[in-house]
Amino acid sequence: MDTYNGIVCISTAQLIRSADNPAGLMAENTLFSMIYRKKAKIVRRGGGEGNPSLIAFDSLPPKYKKMAQERFGDPQVEAEKDGLLNDIEIKTEAVDFYKKHTIEYADRIESLPDEVQELYVNTAAVLDALKIRWEKHVMAQRSKSKRPLTGEFWKNAAAATQKLLTLKENKIKHDLKKNPRRLQEKLQGYITHGYGYLISERYGNTYSVKITEEAGEWLVARFSTRSIDIVTIEQLFAEYNCKADKAGWKKLKSTKAVRDYLHRPEIEPKWYAARYGELAAKEKFGRQHRTILPTRRDTLWYSDGTKLNYYYQDEDGKVRTCNVYEVMDVYSEVFLGYHISETEDYEAQYYAYKMAIQKAGHKPYELKYDGQGGHRKLESSDLLKNLSRHAIRTAPYNGKSKTIESAFGRYQEHYLHKDWYFTGQNITAKTKESRGNEEFILANQKNLPTLDEVKAQYAKRREEWNNAPHPKTGIARSEMYRTSVNEETQAVDCLDMISIFGVTTKAAATYRSNGIEIQVKIQGQSQKFAFEVLTADGMPDMDFYRRNIGRKFYTRYCPDDMSMVSLYEKDAAEKMRFVTIAQSFIYVQRAMQDQTSEDLSFIRQMDAANKKMRIDNERERNELLASHNMHPNQHGLNVAPLKGVNTSKAKKGKIDIGELQKEVSNMAALEEKKKATRRAIKKAEKQAQVQQDDDRTDFYKQRMELLQQSLN
């Protein structure tokens, strides 16, 4: 039943008995006959699905009225109930209001219980619908120039609201009274005061002790401070009550009121960072991204160092642990490269990246790493920039963003945990299964593996991890990586390996008479290496010595092959410019007894080369002085002879002043000689450059062959 234009109606679908409605009150022909004989009045003619004709209930014969009341109940009440159901709407504003409402008791602060929130939201929705029904009733009556039937409306409305509590489907729980007058008063109060009017006094603040804004600020400040005595909740409660009388605050009855206030969502961020640190506050209150992982290999690599979770015994039988640095492909979770060392340093990272590149055969599109260990040295050497298109340092103290840390946790839990000398997972793991059996390990200290055995076992566990099914796809990680293709990543060849993994010293070193010396860390030990530039026949390049002693060079080297390095200079734009290749400095035995024939031959050759260089320098100096009339002989003085040099073999003797004066007077001949000398120098320099280019080509060819052999 329903009300149409203020008239209580019953639909023809309810009246007519049919296969779809066997509980109907009459046959279809009977209803049509009643309408024809004006025993039933049509209020609305139907049309279309879901829009049946409506018959005025009061126009039906008494027999059928009684049957309808027995079958459907009081038509007035049913009509009002159906109208209410149509107008009831749960509003978001009401849901938010009751959800945010808090009750501040003397000893605690609470929100409304969920079932109470639902009750009040439903009650507000019913009252909103009643307001709409009342306004419709008033308008309908006034359209007929009649006064609203207040008593009858509220009697039917009260009955209809109670019917809502008994519905089998879509039951609507509310706390409205049965009394029509009380229902009317409730609606009036709700219209005047809003949602808060519906809240019972027991959920209000009548019996609560409110912490004022001033008192709340003092609680937050006192709990946050680190400059005076740090207090617990209990101590803060005691101080608050001591201060309350002077400040005009109401005393609290228990510590729970303080605790509940401080832990309110809008209050907690105000003191959390001061109490536990800003990073902890960032972790708790900062928004966390939900990211979509890569869909192909080499899109993103993560690298990180961690403790290798195995105990081992060193040469002295002492229990030790070490670190491992891993490089992982995020798409497949394959561990590509690693290095085991005592600490997470530059060397560990270098070798782990090198293994990863060798395994992948491609540069990653993006590489993420933290800022710890030796990464700053890698950054300064440009290795990370050369390694990938984008090398990005992850935000510090943001472990949740690192996929590799999640993989480490599962790797430790499911694979390293298999071995009895497992140290346990990292400190953030809390379960008992994540801990090693320290008692058993201590009882078997002498049976602990050596470092080499640990390295072998770790390599085995890595293979198990790489060959195990990926948790998302069920396909082996190594198979996922092998079958995936990334067209945007660059393949790596032998020359790329040299370019990427050659490390440039941070500071320039001076090329001296005993070559150039650098100090670098190799296999955990700081070592010194000396180099010099050699000629094509493997002898020291004396011409390079003559022109570059005292000059500073940056050295580019490969830690796993220190037999050869490249020398660079920085230009005006701070760009590195390649100069030449230097090789290991040639050492000879100092003691005659230990010297070989090769040593003796080399010493004689170097002695002759040094003397020749001295003689050449002396000749050039004399010629320069003479050309400017500054030679000692030109002023009646003698030139000091070269010590330790056989001047007769060098064709050197006392320079005659007359010859010098004649040579100086004959300027035309001298100028011609200068030109000839310059031409000879240019020709020699050109030949030297050609020779240097040939030497460089041979060097790279030999390096490529050696590197290819090492890769194979």
Short structural description:
This protein is an alpha+beta fold.
Task: Describe this protein's structure.
The chain is of the alpha+beta class. The chain folds into six domains: 2-73, no CATH class; 92-203, no CATH class; 213-285, no CATH class; 301-483, Ribonuclease H-like superfamily/Ribonuclease H (Nucleotidyltransferase, domain 5); 502-587, no CATH class; 673-712. 46% of the residues lie in helices and 15% in strands. The protein contains 25 helices and 18 strands. The strands form four sheets. Strands 12, 13, 14, 15, 16, 17 and 18 form a seven-stranded antiparallel beta sheet that branches. It has a five-stranded mixed beta sheet with strand order 9-8-7-10-11. Strand 17 and strand 18 (576-584) form a beta hairpin. Helix 9 (213-224) crosses helix 10 and helix 12 packs across helix 13. The radius of gyration is 48 Å and the shape is elongated. Residues 649-655 have low confidence and may be disordered.
What attributes characterize this protein structure?
15% strand, 6 domains, 712 residues, alpha+beta
- Output the CATH topology of the largest domain: Nucleotidyltransferase, domain 5
Q: Judging from the principal axes of the Cα atoms, what is the shape?
A: elongated
Largest sheet, described in full?
Answer: 7 strands, antiparallel
Q: Provide the gyration radius in Å.
A: 48 Å
Beta strands, count: 18
- Unreliable segments (pLDDT under 50, ≥5 consecutive)? 649-655
DSSP summary: helix tally: 25
Q: Which architecture of the largest domain would the CATH scheme give at its second level?
A: 2-Layer Sandwich
Structural class: alpha+beta
Tally of distinct domains: 6
CATH homologous superfamily name of the largest domain? Ribonuclease H-like superfamily/Ribonuclease H
In helices, the fraction of residues equals: 40-55%
